[in-house]
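Ticket #394: bound-state structure for zinc ion.
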Amino acid sequence: MSDSRPAVSPFRRAATALVQWIDSDYCPEGAEKMRAEPDRVDWVRVMPFVFLHAGCLGVIWTGASAFAVWTAVALYFIRMFAVTGIHHRYFSHKTYSTSRFGQFLLAVFAGTTVQRGSLWWAYHHRHHHLHSDGPEDAHSPHVHGFWWSHIGWITSRRNFPTDYSKIKDLAKYPELVWLNRFDLVVPVLFAVSLFGLGAVLERFAPGLGTNGWQMLVWGFFISTTFLFHGTGCINSMAHLMGRRRFKTDDDSRNSAILAFITLGEGWHNNHHRYQSSTRNGFYWWEIDPTYYGLRLLAAVGFIWGLKPVPESVLAEGARADHAASVEAARRAAALHPEISHSSLKRVVPAAAAIAVATASAAQATLPKKADDPAIHKDVTELAHELNPPKPPVI
Ligand SMILES: [Zn+2]
Ligand SMILES: [Zn+2]
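RESOLUTION: The complex was predicted; output attached.
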């Protein structure tokens, strides 16, 4: 497809980037053309992001207080819940329902995470699921390398526009489009509020030893920078580090460490296997704080229609775990044959018999690939109605 429009001059590109600080949808040369460009860091456009990191250095002048540090920690986890529970499990995958006003409140809350608008986030995330670890995946560590998948991809000019045609179920709400277009508004209000809170505390609770600038540096700059990198770990580390329970057609992995950092998103292989579930920790031992938080919101009636993991997927996971543990035992026995002939075997023949029986049973059910239904890049369920009738209370 040819484009007769002249190439964009560097000056024009910089001017466009400046306007985009305020209006993310400003794109005179056409968003489609911008998305078709090769990857290239847009230094003017990413200055607010650089500023976010540079703001952390403000601690040199403001110092620290226990109150400010704990505020930063609390805001990290509260807003990580917004990243995972709202940007991801609501807007990207629609794993639960809420009212239109509730949806607006969720988008505002998610805006405080400073990860651009929920629609931009959802568009890119759905794209990731459609092309996971393939050449088109914007942030695959296997295709683009670790640093690009962690941070580089969001600095690339081609990744700035939101393709509203790919998220029609969300783009039909003008209030969401507005928040997405002017995605600087909520973060600025949030930062100003933190400064104001610090100033009020300095005046009325001087014993806390904090002030406006200190709360701005710790509550906004430091906490938000950590929040960004914690989230970025899912794009980079969750496709490199951990265990693969399900043989998905990407390299997603499950990691308890990443699950702790991201309040449950570290069960990423589970999520790639079945994206429509509200929970990413499929079993009780896979700690998923985001899911627990969403259960709380459901208990008070703010959200509803949380989607479970299908029994067939749970059974498939259980079979895969069983097969993996038997395989591990077989490898251990091969590495240490003395154990299999040891006195232990004579002492506990029953245990050996059980182990043999278990291994035999596992051979019969060892899955070669994921069971039916076939692994699906199921971003297909996203066009469902926003407000289905509330299910009856059980
Ligand atoms: Zn992934
Ligand atoms: Zn996802």
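RESOLUTION NOTES: The longest helix spans residues 66-92.
TICKET STATUS: resolved
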